[in-house]
Design a protein that fits this description.
mainly alpha, 0% strand, single chain, 2 domains, elongated, Arc Repressor Mutant, subunit A, 66% helix
Length: 128
Amino acid sequence: MRTLRLASNKARRPVSTRGALDETRLRRVRDYVEAHLADDLSLAALAAVACLSPSRFIHSFKAATSISPWAWVTRLKITRAQELLRNTDHPLAQIALACGFTSQSHFTNAFKRATGLAPSRWRVQARS
């Protein structure tokens, strides 16, 4: 019976927010990440900001946002990179480091995965 229920075409129930990170802790984590985006952000540091153990933080964060902390931080890095690409003439290597990527190639690969374009091409299109 359970197998049939899982395979049915019925609409799924919304994801439970039980155990989710509350808005205050989420805001603290977001503020911390934005202030330290260029730094090496560890899971332990993010969990400490939320006053939770790393394993509890991962579970609570994902319950609140529907994505992992790592994916969320990557999105913030890409968003910051887009702002810098659009509004400055800084070289890609400098933008990569300012956004917390370990190298220009790491930045280019992550940016391309997220946007479908290389950063240099994205910059040209965003300014036209």
